[in-house]
Amino acid sequence: MAMFQDAKFVELEEQFSCGVEVKNEGHSFSLTLVQKNAPLIPRKIIDYNWKVTLADGFEFRAPMSSTQATYPPTRLENIIDALKKAGKYDDPFLAHAINDTIDEIYRKYS
After folding, report:
1. How far is residue 25 CA from its own chain's centroid?
2. How far is CA 41 from CA 29, 45, 59, 85, in A?
3. Is 33 exposed, middle or buried (0-12, 13-18, 19+ CB in 10 A)?
4. Cβ contacts of residue 82 below 8 Å, gap of 6+?
5. DSSP string, the chain
6. What is the rounded distance in angstroms from the CA atom of residue 82 to the CA atom of residue 88?
7. How far apart are CA 23 and CA 79, in angstroms?
8. C-alpha distances in angstroms, 59 versus 41, 55, 82?
9. 40 — pLDDT class (breaks 50, 70, 90)
10. Using an 8 Å Cβ cutoff, are 33 and 12 in contact?
11. DSSP β-bridge partners for residue 60
């Protein structure tokens, strides 16, 4: 049985699987699409998360969408928590820039 994928989903995978440099609100970081521990073949956009790499090389994972069953419950809170744990939360606009960029991508491809 052949599997057919949505063209937008294929475009998302092709564009972001190797990482894309992003400049948003004066901040620079890269986003790389990474598969969750979900099905072997991702079928939905939420089967992915993001590897965020800051300009200084620090990396962390950010969820594609909110994870209401766990803490922190929103993507933004997850990003803020990761930045605080690494001592990188000296600029709150960075967390918002990352979250806003992921949100734009999520809305475009979902």
Report:
1. 17
2. 27, 11, 25, 32
3. buried
4. 52, 60, 61, 62
5. ------HHHHHHHHHHTT-EEEEETTEEEEEEEEE-SS-SS--SGGGEEEEEEETTS-EEEEESS--TTSSS-SHHHHHHHHHHHTT--S-HHHHHHHHHHHHHHHHHH-
6. 8
7. 17
8. 25, 10, 9
9. low
10. yes
11. 52
Which has more pLDDT, 25 or 75? 75
Q: What is the pLDDT of residues 11-34, one digit of tens each?
A: 998 999 999 999 987 889 999 999
Name the token pair of 110. Answer: 């979902």
- Both ends of the chain: CA-CA distance in Å? 24
